[in-house]
């Protein structure tokens, strides 16, 4: 079964030889083909090229799609979300407008602990239904691969409940999904003042049970001011790695926490947030296998300092972008809007923003061999835009839905 897309105005992010990531000055380069075609065979990309080189397609062609005037992109990859949650937190949004800080809201029982109470009360089916609706939403907005974290349960039963929901989403949706165990998202109320005991609880009870059910691909820790220390993080990552869970770290959102360095020490797949990055952090990331991942939606929503993305790229580093879709600090999984924020607030050019939301963020969630670019043998996860003039129009028209058709695993998503 084959599907062919013809007369593509521009086929974006094409790779003859797939790369693991794009770094430094190369982030401003983007390989595209004008007046192109694309052939999909079952769920994979079989071929592509210029229309003038198109030869007769062998085998049964199920459908021909005419993309005249339109662009074709690989689906966005979103390597950092918390989209399994119960209820919204718009009252905290008003508190922020009135001047309360993230830490002040957390100390009042808001923030993560607010979501924790709701997760514990919700059933697995309730969580699944709401998360499934969010998955449908982000798919319609162009996301084809997403990493989803636990971290709002903060006890064994509730963390497992969240991870089981993520497992069901993997089974029931065409998106490529990775699951991350984030028991160390905050210290729950019952352990306040006993943080070391909670770390012991994560190490001795949570991690073994998560691993025994095979529910997580990665382990994450919120290593930052007011949350978990470098020493705590060191212990939990070490324990997680013994069970085959590779680290992904929340780091340096609130201060210079040492989270980047401990992430690199344990070969973390990514270190995320990164509002506070200096020369020492950049030096630690050089020559590592760890992807610096910036979450523009969270910085925008919380009115926080912007990560020094340009400084990192000028130092030769790769940079990924993700949405941080969650109810408290980034209630949106719209990766096109993330691109717009990257261009406006971080002064990234369009090519850099595209690389950061496709190839690099695919690496940041460990799916770079199957997603993140238009390459033969990769998954046919892509979208066709409406009629637009060029790639620059995508971040420029920040409030417009420019996606006309979504294809995931080779199938058109209605």
Number of helices: 15
CATH architecture term of the largest domain: Alpha-Beta Barrel
Overall mean confidence score, pLDDT: 96
Give start-end ranges of low-pLDDT stretches. Answer: none
Q: In percent terms, what proportion of residues is strand? A: 15-25%
How helix-rich are the residues, as a percent range? 25-40%
The total number of structural domains is 2
Global Rg: 21 Å
Question: What does this protein structure show overall?
Answer:
Helix content is 35%, strand content 24%. Helix 4 (124-140) crosses helix 5. It has helices spanning 90-97, 102-107, 112-121, 124-140, 156-172, 195-212, 230-242, 259-265, 279-285, 296-302, 309-314, 335-345, 350-357, 359-364, 393-396; strands spanning 2-12, 32-41, 44-50, 61-66, 70-74, 76-81, 143-149, 176-184, 218-223, 246-251, 270-273, 291-294, 320-321, 382-387, 403-408, 411-413. The chain is built from 15 helices and 16 strands. It is globular. It has two domains: 2-75 and 373-413, Urease, subunit C, domain 1; 76-364, Metal-dependent hydrolases (TIM Barrel), CATH 3.20.20. Strand 10 (246-251), helix 8 and strand 11 (270-273) form a beta-alpha-beta unit. The strands form two sheets. Strands 1, 2, 3, 4, 5, 14, 15 and 16 form an eight-stranded mixed sheet that branches. It has an eight-stranded parallel sheet with strand order 6-7-8-9-10-11-12-13. With 414 residues, the protein is of the alpha/beta class.
């Amino acid at each position: 079964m084959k599907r062919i897309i013809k007369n593509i105005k521009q086929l974006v992010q094409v790779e003859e030889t797939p790369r693991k990531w794009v770094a430094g000055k190369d982030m401003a380069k983007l390989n595209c083909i004008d007046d192109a075609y694309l052939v999909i065979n079952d769920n994979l990309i079989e071929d592509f090229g210029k229309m003038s080189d198109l030869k007769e397609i062998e085998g049964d062609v199920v459908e021909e799609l005419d993309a005249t005037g339109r662009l074709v992109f690989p689906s966005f990859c979103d390597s950092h979300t918390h989209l399994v949650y119960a209820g919204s937190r718009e009252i905290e949004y008003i508190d922020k407008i009135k001047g309360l800080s993230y830490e002040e809201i957390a100390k009042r029982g808001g923030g993560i602990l607010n979501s924790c109470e709701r997760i514990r009360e919700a059933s697995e089916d309730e969580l699944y239904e709401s998360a499934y609706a969010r998955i449908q939403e982000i798919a319609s907005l162009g996301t084809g691969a997403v990493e989803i974290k636990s971290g709002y349960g903060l006890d064994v039963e509730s963390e497992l409940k969240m991870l089981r929901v993520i497992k069901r989403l993997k089974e029931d949706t065409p998106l490529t999904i990775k699951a991350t165990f984030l028991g160390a998202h905050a210290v729950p109320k019952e352990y306040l003042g006993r943080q070391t005991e909670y770390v012991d609880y994560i190490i001795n009870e949570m991690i073994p049970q998560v691993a025994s059910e095979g529910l997580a691909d990665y382990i994450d820790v919120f290593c930052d001011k007011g949350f978990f220390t470098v020493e705590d993080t060191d212990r939990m990552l070490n324990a997680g790695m013994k069970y085959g869970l590779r680290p992904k770290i929340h780091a340096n959102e609130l201060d210079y926490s040492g989270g980047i360095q401990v992430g690199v020490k344990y070969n973390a797949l990514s270190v995320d947030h990164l509002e506070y990055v200096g020369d020492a952090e950049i030096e630690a990331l050089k020559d590592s296998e760890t992807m610096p991942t910036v979450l523009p939606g969270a910085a925008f929503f919380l009115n926080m300092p912007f990560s020094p993305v340009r400084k990192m790229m000028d130092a030769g580093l790769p940079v990924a972008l993700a949405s941080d879709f969650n109810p408290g600090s980034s209630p949106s999984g719209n990766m096109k809007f993330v691109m717009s924020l990257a261009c406006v607030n971080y002064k990234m050019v369009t090519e850099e923003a595209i690389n950061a939301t496709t190839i690099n963020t695919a690496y940041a969630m460990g799916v770079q061999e199957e997603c993140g670019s238009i390459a033969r043998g990769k998954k046919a996860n892509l979208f066709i835009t409406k009629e637009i003039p060029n790639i620059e129009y995508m971040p420029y028209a920040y409030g417009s839905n420019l996606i006309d058709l979504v294809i995931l695993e080779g199938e058109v998503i209605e």
